[in-house]
Amino acid sequence: MNIQQQVQLKPFNTLNLDAMASHYVKIHSIESVVDAIHFAQKQQLNILILSGGSNMLLPQHLHALVMHMDIQGIEFLAEDELTKTIKVGAGQVWHDFVLWTTEQQLYGLQNLALIPGLVGASPVQNIGAYGVEVGEFIESVEVYDRHLNQFNSIQAQDCTFAYRHSIFKNDPNRYVICHVVFKLLKNPDLKMNYGDLKTAMADEITAKNLQEQVIRIRQSKLPDPQTFPNVGSFFKNPIISEQDLQQIKLNAPNIPHYPQNDGHVKIAAGWLIDQSGWKGKRLAQVGMFDKQALVLVNYAEATLEDVQATYQAVQRDVFKQFNILLEPEPVLFNESGLIQAHVS
Ligand code: EPU
Prior knowledge:
Layout: E1 4-8, E2 20-27, H1 30-43, E3 47-50, E4 56-57, E5 61-69, E6 74-79, E7 83-89, H2 94-103, E8 128-129, E9 132-133, E10 138-145, E11 150-155, H3 167-170, E12 175-185, H4 197-201, H5 207-221, E13 230-233, E14 239-240, H6 242-249, E15 257-259, E16 265-267, H7 269-275, E17 282-283, E18 286-288, E19 295-298, H8 304-322, E20 331-333, E21 339-340
Parallel strand pairs: 2-5, 3-5, 4-20
Antiparallel strand pairs: 1-2, 6-7, 7-12, 8-9, 10-11, 10-12, 13-19, 14-16, 15-16, 17-18, 18-19, 20-21
């Protein structure tokens, strides 16, 4: 195990925030998970799990052990008439894995193409796009449980998957995700109901084309983090009551909204931000992207404080106009490496 000191995390977080970690280790195997945890206990350091760095907000100085997950490998576990079960290392790149499933004629994940990050982070916020959430195709998640000090397999039904949510969010310091076990379909069951996906596919109703159209739509709206550092959607789409919706509709009859199963409605945060004048607007070097107002971009050398100044200004303006408090999606860390609540 090679523990390094004073490691710059800027290349490892897609918002490109300057963040110096006091201790850093790359994790290639489940054995090194245990070794790293012991090291942190001995040194009295908190542990920060770093995956693809595409959903985190880091402070400039971090006194913690950063465990950078790099467990590789894809293994077939089982097969029946309709499905194949595969176990995937947490460090596999998510998008490459999705492309690989399509090549293998395994179906379900095509709508989730081009989402940044690594496989191990996918269950944490139950990544979702274009009508599919990853939890639908997860059989179990293999973790190291830091409370019980043992490896464990958590079945999907115990992961409490919901919109941008799972058990891993409730208890963020408990589990180190090592592998994810997926159950994928052998026959395509294409989900094309989202927006203009169906029209975009025209006559070629294949899983490969679905994947290509998802990639095309994402590329046309979402900034490439290499050019415009970002963490994808910066805010969650708020879920409100039907009654509150009716109230908002009095002033904003065209507000995009999506009914949920429990009678609530999901509102498009991008639309709220757009309406409040923030689409393409910047405060110093941080702003909301001009093609998709939901994405916050670091246009220069912003620090966490700059990012906070911008998103809090967005929250204030949206709240003033719609009486809705937007909730940030990325996870905020303090200088001790612990997750903390966002201040509005
Ligand atoms: N809208 C605007 N102005 C904008 C952006 C959006 O008016 O600047 C309106 C659109 O016209 C549309 C609605 O808002 O009516 C929804 O927009 P869109 O279809 O682009 O999707 P979204 O709700 O903004 C969500 C996910 C994305 C995911 C897409 C597609 C969240 C927080 N975001 O975005 O996820 O790719 O749907 O399924 O749920 C991510 O999490 O990083 C991410 C990109």
